[in-house]
Amino acid sequence: GRRDPRPRTVWLGHPEKRDQRYPRNVINNQKYNFFTFLPGVLFNQFKYFFNLYFLLLACSQFVVEMRLGALYTYWVPLGFVLAVTVIREAAEEIRCYMRDKEVNSQIYSKLTARGRLCGSSTAGACCLVNQRVPADMIFLRTSEKNGSCFLRTDQLDGETDWKLRLPVTCTQRLPTASDLLQIRSYVYAEEPNIDIHNFVGTFTREDSDPSVNESLSIENTLWASTVIASGTVVGVVLYTGRELRSVMNTSNPRSKFLFCALIFTTLCPLTWKRNFCPLDTKG
Predict the structure, then answer these.
(1) Is the Cβ–Cβ distance between 181 and 125 less than 8 Å?
(2) Which of 88, 137, 183, 188 could anchor a disulfide with 222, C-beta 3.0 to 4.6 Å?
């Protein structure tokens, strides 16, 4: 089951020292599954008062004493709008499924003691080259001579500009990327939350004399769904799956109000005609 978000300590090169389990690093933007699709669509439409009102009004026409006209004048518009709604929701679900499948099937290089291996990044150090960041990470090292990189963040915060990110100072000074797994170090990070503009954490290296403690901020982060603009970047994974900043900031879109205008304009003239009684001109 799900647990309350907690701060965590992530050791470089020592996955066995993880103090808690990571959620699966998959993205799922679908609102329904195969079994909940039709009930879910109907519930999201009829939970609104006016939609439920017109459904009850259409059902009431099966009672002869309450009938105001032919049944098809009620059920044809209702069935048409329901069909449009179901088709629209199905198309959106298929589009989300295909997009999620493409993102979840991407392969990244994972840095190990023996070198780089291809595989999905659920934990550990991940190596990125002009790729979309697969998880929320701390920026450890870059191949760029200026010691920094730029991120495109349009799919995270909607802004089209580029954000500057800086690696952890003591890891950027290491001769090679493989040295990251030869030192005794760890990252302490705050609990997962929705704030994409702030981060609190520390990087600690214990095998140096004296030990190194470096504060981490938003400038040291690589959030999932951003894109590396240049160079080769190595980062350590902090948050995955439902704990990603981008996932925690995503809310299910509200179902659209489709029934009222169409059914109201269909039923009202009929009701008015049935209840209108012209004056008796003969007195």
Answers:
(1) yes
(2) 137
**pLDDT band, residue 142 (cuts 50/70/90):** very high
**Residue 281 domain-assigned (yes or no):** no
Selection from 45, 6, 40 nearest residue 23 by Cα: 6
CATH number, residue 196: 2.70.150
Evaluate if residue 5 carries a pLDDT over 70.
yes
Is 96 part of a structural domain of the chain?
yes
Residue 141 sits at φ, ψ, to 5 deg, of: -160, 145
| Phi then psi dihedrals of residue 165, to 5 deg | -130, 145
Query: Residue 47: pLDDT above 50?
Result: yes
Which positions ≥6 away from 19 have C-beta within 8 Å?
8, 9
Number of Cβ within 10 Å of residue 142's Cβ equals 23
Q: Is residue 209 part of a domain?
A: yes
Number of residues that make up the chain: 283
pLDDT in tens, 11-20: 887 766 766 7
Q: Say yes or no: 91 and 115 in one domain.
A: no
Same-domain check for residues 268 and 234: no
Full domain range(s) for residue 81: 37-100+255-275
Query: For the chain, what is the domain count?
Result: 2
Q: Is the pLDDT of residue 215 over 90?
A: yes
Do both 112 and 218 map to the same domain? yes
Question: What percent of the chain has pLDDT above 90?
Answer: 36
User: If you average pLDDT over residues 3-7, what whole number do you get?
Assistant: 77
- Residue 47 falls inside a structural domain: yes
